[in-house]
């Protein structure tokens, strides 16, 4: 069942039924200031860090789901309704929510009154605009009462939800003209406050939640709205809110617009006060002045649209499949940018409290957005590398507000360092900027320990070399990419965290996934060394890579697929010898991408085994058979019910590794089939089962052994976005940046006649037409550049500021 439709021309998903199977959300903001907005008006707002600078409150796992947000109440007589349907849930005469590129529009009507709400965050601005437009489409004059509503969070989202003995006494506000200022804790250690304004004289306000809502009411029936009159309350402790009250009269056919602004202000420590206990409002007033008219708002909105035109203009394809085109051209790229901003920190599944920016996460995310914002990608790489230690290991995560590493969820994830080679080499291939390698980058954010970024890559590579186990395969540490495969944990206490509990310092548990990863990015490190003239470094590194290849062939092959690991006791995991968990996806993906044993047929056998044992209708499951009992020597992976998350679920992040592996042996039909099974736009018709948004990837889909196969969870913030974009554009469509040019080597379904791609690369525009007259999956017969044939699949760097015509004939 569908709950809306794609509007590709407008780059919007249009929701026409507010009762979606789960809240379908969008992200507002592109730099420092962000909001999450659901299709019924739920969500919350924060500055930089969803834990330490949260402006508005949100209650996760609530009943009903998605209660609390940024609401408008419209009262006409005894009828009360909201443009986003919630919280009032009055049946509307019409409803539409349009999620676009960093904006959301609501358009609803009731009893001849139409309400439109446009929400967005202007570029470079620390405030959210909410433009409310009311139109009388009836033949009689309408008298309406309009109430706004937000609930302030007390800055630290974790403390806000727990420290009630303090927080019920700290709330403070000021009201001046049509602006409500939230200044809780401002007189103490904070140099920031927030505000909520409207560009209209108000008839009243409220700032105390209990008075506005009524102690025994909900957001659906707030006492002030039901009574139709504000109480002009000033919060002293308890739970501060901001609500404006406006009286509206509309003649037939008349419209009125109101500009609301939710803003964040920082002031210097010596400039906090206008007078005793009165905050310095000058910065807030300047922000309000900037967007206090509809004309100013429209100009800012058009600027935002242009910004996204440019971001999405770097890669654009035209195939014969609208579902593919909208994923590559719009929604996959958009999700990659949102994930760049958020990492795994703030969604309707991630509370923004327990996780910051991940070392491995952020490195992998970069491959999905480096083509759009290379300068910010460079900054991100340096931020990540700065949290590394001198031996190559690193903090597993860091906080976006401070950019400093923290060990809140443990460390010693032994795959982490290698991902820095991925992000760095992809950045250099995209930009040609080798100067990054000479940049002095701290270790552990300590400038006195700074070395060149190349040295960071070197210690990343040798961290694996220096941490090998009995089979000369990489030690897994606390875990590798699969955080739930905890082979050195041995936890039998349900109050312990698997990620922070390590009862044994393991020197035996080894990972075949890291082995394949090391070969892939070890080869990249060797290639980079040769590119910059470090031939001796390249030769030494190449020997280590070759040794790893031999170790995998000798100790990592199980007959029909690659092993997953050796446990603490040296026993095989992911082997036909095991009772459960006989085969895992990660090692099949990485060892296939590394082409280990390709000439002996190992890669093909491995991928055939994936098809036989792991593939299902909804994607490729992580392991099979799923675990049905707890294996203390395996850890968290065996705690999930069969078919969910890491235990036999379709963990979408790793499906593209198999897609790429299939392209290595030229099987374009298989690669594309796997792609379509998890790409959101291909799943729109099963939204009732899938539940989450049909325009963005999710982390997990329930696998074939689950109670409800095909049901998805954890949408938006997932490495799935970047890896799927990387797989479809660079390996299936086959247009891949290289150090000295643009490589074109597609691996597509044989039935395709071809496709077209516009690719901006190093200042030039490449109009690429791929034709497939012989209907093969892989192979390039000829490439013609501006009318001249070249004898390579790598197009050399072409002249900047010009458009170049490329024709690729497969054969």
From TrEMBL:
Keywords associated with the record: Glycosyltransferase, Transferase
Coiled-coil stretches: none
Keyword Glycosyltransferase attached: yes
SMART domains reported in the protein's UniProt record: CBM_X (SM01068)
Pfam family name, one: Glyco_hydro_94
Alphabetized SUPFAM superfamilies for the sequence: Galactose mutarotase-like, Six-hairpin glycosidases
InterPro entries, per database record: 6-hairpin_glycosidase_sf, 6hp_glycosidase-like_sf, Gal_mutarotase_sf_dom, GH65_N, GH94_catalytic, GH94_Enzymes, GH94N_CBP, Glyco_hydrolase_94_b-supersand
Domain Glycosyl hydrolase 94 supersandwich: 11-293
Entry keyword Methyltransferase: no
A GO MF label: glycosyltransferase activity
Glycosyl hydrolase 94 catalytic domain residues: 307-734
GO terms for biological process, alphabetical: carbohydrate metabolic process
Protein name per its UniProtKB record: Glycosyl transferase
Organism: Flavobacterium franklandianum
